[in-house]
Amino acid sequence: MTDPRFERNEMMRTDQNHNNDEDETRYPDGTVKLRNPNIELMDQDILYHLALGSESHDLVEMFGDVKFVCMGGTPKRMQDFADYIMKEIGYKLPTGTTLQDISRYSYRYSMYKVGPVLSISHGMGVPSISILLHEMIKLMYHAKAKDPVFIRIGTCGGVGVDGGTVVISDGAYDPLLNNYYEVPVLGKLTSRPAILDKKVIRELKALADVEDPYETVTGKTMCTSDFYEGQGRLDGAFCEYTETEKLKYLEHLKEFGIVNIEMECVPFAALTHHAGIKAAIVCVALLDRFNGDQVSTPKEVLNEWQVRPQKLVAKYIKRHLQMKGKFSLDGHGSMAVKSPRRFKLVQQESQTFE
Predict the structure, then answer these.
(1) Domain 4-352's class?
(2) Residues with Cβ < 8 Å from 343, sequence gap 6 or more?
(3) Helix (H) or strand (E) holding 308
(4) Closest to 310 in 3D by CA, of 207, 224, 210, 218
(5) Domain boundaries, the chain
(6) This prediction's pTM
């Protein structure tokens, strides 16, 4: 009988080789090619959780110039990042306009557009970010955006690193320390390698300022599907292990090279890699899990810490924009409606879709 682990590893190798072929994921001009032939046959592709549609909106006009898709957990954080990146890149909104939450009619995610930068919330955990990624990848396809880079900006628990430390993930692992994303498809487990872009990681690390009063490190990141027991916390509603067992587990993670724990890195790395999209993750540790489970740092300090990953990502974006020259002022994120009737339908579908 064939060992199931062998079959899974073979599946991963097959997927890895398949995914390395850029012809499968990119058109010659750098635009995204979907791994789903059904989309081209549909009358309209409704992105339910973004309140957008391929026929109700002119997605090329709205998003065709996007070069960077930045995402983080909460709407407030990503609105703040949109305001911050607008100042950093010197982007000026057209007279009489303000930043708008493009996906406000979905009541699920918040999305802001600042020139070539999208700033969007992904919620908490694997299901929430996986839904968003499917629709963001499709959005890039419909918009004909060329060579977009996806970056997750978040918070995490440190494993042997102090609170306030910025962590650039160079690997994404599940709680069993597998670096692939397993999702049941038609009753069978499908494995997809969780791989981040090494070049983007190197560029981000090189941009860290040695004069910063905090460390910026690279290391492996563990993704869990649970905030409490899945992360070995002692403060959940249930805890059937001792503090000694928790510390032993954290030591095991540290020896493996894990430097932080969060709840989105594996699907983020796997789905972007499967789509042929360059991606990276930059988080700030809110505490060292060896020293406890609850965050006791004052709120004003936490607010400053959460800006640290944004600063590094802003440096990366500014550097690339400077290399490419001036960016277009067209497509500033206002609604470009193709069909008022379909536009209304998409709003209604997005508000009621479960």
Answers:
(1) alpha beta
(2) 53, 56, 57, 335, 337
(3) helix 299-324
(4) 207
(5) 4-352
(6) 0.88
